[in-house]
């Protein structure tokens, strides 16, 4: 078991469940990180903007899979979303998430 799996858990089944329900992939990295590479079809919203855009995210009407570079910021974003009544899952690092999809 890898260190990240130990810290964040192996969530492959949960990710597939969310994806099967047309989840939105929300990348919470900085603009510079996003510009350097990202998943096709993902939406971009830096972590610092998530709290201010809860209404926008709720209007999407879909579960959310958050991602970032390693899983730390996306974990924070998923917590903020859950605390605001949005079904959210920390997908971890975007490159690892891409392999799970």
Rg measurement, Å: 12 Å
How many β-strand runs? 4
Query: How does the helix and strand content classify structurally?
Result: alpha/beta
Strand order of the largest sheet: 2-1-3-4
Number of helices: 7
Q: What series of H and E elements makes up the topology?
A: HHEHEHHEHEH
Span of the ends, CA to CA: 20 Å
How many separate structural domains?
1
CATH topology: Oxidized Rhodanese, domain 1
Overall pLDDT metric: 90
As residue ranges, the low-confidence spans are none
CATH class, anyone? Alpha Beta
Largest sheet: 4 strands, parallel
Query: What proportion strand?
Result: 15-25%
Basic shape: globular
Looking at CATH, the homologous superfamily is Rhodanese-like domain
CATH architecture: 3-Layer(aba) Sandwich
Q: Helix share of residues?
A: 40-55%
Q: What is the gist of this entry?
A:
By secondary structure, the chain is of the alpha/beta class. It has helices spanning 3-8, 12-20, 31-36, 47-50, 54-60, 72-83, 94-100, and strands at residues 24-27, 43-44, 64-68, 88-93.
